[in-house]
Amino acid sequence: MTEQRRPGLSRRQLVKYAGVGATFVASGAAATSGSAWAQDDDDRTRHGDSRNRSWRAGDHHVHSEYSGEFDTSVTPPRFHKGADAVYPIVTNAIMAKHFGLTWAMCTDHGGPTHSKVNLELAYPDLLRSRQLVPEVLQFWGMEFDTPKLDHHTLMIPRHDDEAKQLFELESRFAKFDAFPTDPARDTEAKMIEFLKAAKDMRDKPLVIAHHTSRSATGLGVYGQDTPREFRNGNNIAPEIYVGFEGAPGHQAAPLNGGARGGYGNHPTYGGYDQMTARVGGLWDSLLGEGRKWWITATSDSHVHWTRGGADFWPGEYSKTYVLARQDYGDIMDALRNGRIFVTTGDLVTTLDLTAKGRGREAMVGETLMLSRRDRNDVEIEIRFRPLQGKNGNGERPEVRRVDLIVGNVTGVNANLDADTNPTTKVVARFGPRDWRRQGSEYVIRHTLRNVEQDLYARVRGTNTDELEPLADGKENPWTDLWFYSNPVFVRVS
After folding, report:
1. Which residues contact 482 (CB under 8 A, 6 or more apart)?
2. Where do the record's region annotations for Disordered lie (predicted)?
3. 451: which DSSP letter?
4. Which of 184, 242, 289, 339 falls between 20 and 30 A from 80, CA-CA?
5. What is the CATH code of the structural domain delimited by 11-347?
6. In the beta sheet, which residues pair with residue 438?
7. Using an 8 Å Cβ cutoff, are 26 and 3 in contact?
8. In this structure, are residues 276 and 341 in contact, taking their beta carbons and an 8 Å threshold?
9. Phi (first) and psi of residue 127, to 5 degrees
10. What Å distances lie between residue 385 and 250, 430, 437, 487, CA to CA?
11. pLDDT, tens digit, for every residue of 323-381?
12. Domain range list for the chain
């Protein structure tokens, strides 16, 4: 692979800033012959989009060497880099670019007084990485030590005071930032206080839950993260607290004998969290209330599996695609408003889901408005583009089936612990004989007849023969690939 670097930057300087990543790329060790990750904008542009938006792959959960450790035997605690994750920020950016990402986010762990580490040490390195790898828009934020819950992405909008904004939120609300530890920070009341403060900020951040069932002990037997807490947080700040990881990171763990996703208590299903993978489960329960609650897919990269870790590089295996311009604000707007699909193993590179009726149409994240006075047939159109080259495993995966999933929207559930939507069903399954080719895309159409009540539709697909994703064991993750759209809503009034 030809080394890419900015004009005027020597190889020695690149290696200095990029560390192992520059050596990795320059040596060609990560290159795959014939790869087609980097497609031009014309090839990625959504059919018919007039706002110059295209599907752009990214990752909002990536760790750097600033996920370290603290020596608390001294005051203030002394920080040591590289104890948990090992790569410089710019290494992750280089590898993200190599694997076809156009945006990414540094999300390091917190700890006692970590807010100062972020402000004084990590943020200057992010600024240097933005200069060295401008092709990847690099957001600032952290893996937030969420009060009462497991970790979450805290994503800060790009603006001149972004570092101060993160410092304010982390120093005030992260449950482990105080030294000595303050038990009052680890309460649901503190989480609600944090969300209210975030909601009142001029530059509004995003909060997305991580590996939500990693501490669950069974199917529907939840651990740190519960349906009640998701509902309460989304009720307080619906434009801030917008979703969870559908496909958690650490997907390479089985390659070194571990559990996929690090889910050692209860497994993932096809690489996806049970809250997402179970049809009619928690995600569908939230959507059935009409909540704008989205899923993403991330690497959670700490240490690459070839160095004994459990991870793939950013973009190597999991991708979160957003329909957006190559602009910080528009990418964040797409995440906030559900213009998202996710995939593993580069099974698809575009996925458009559209609901049409009465001369109107809506796509993922949007709502199609219909009148109850009319006889409403809703046409669902699915368009997807398979990978044109080879993925990170040197293969060109094939989509074997696409499922259309539909559930009713019945309004807010009085039971905050509800985790099922019994109306949600797979209403149609499609194989290669059911789709037709249009250029480089495949198109599927299906009509929902006599729609008389509010509903949502979402799509998933796979390279397997499994009708429902099976509980994961130690299988090679490259053999078990799935993609999921976010929903499109239909409202009949």
Report:
1. 247, 270, 271, 272, 343, 344, 347, 460, 461, 462, 464, 469
2. 35-60
3. -
4. 184
5. 3.20.20.140
6. 441
7. yes
8. no
9. -60, -40
10. 26, 15, 10, 19
11. 999 999 999 999 999 999 999 999 999 999 999 999 999 999 999 999 988 778 999 99
12. 11-347
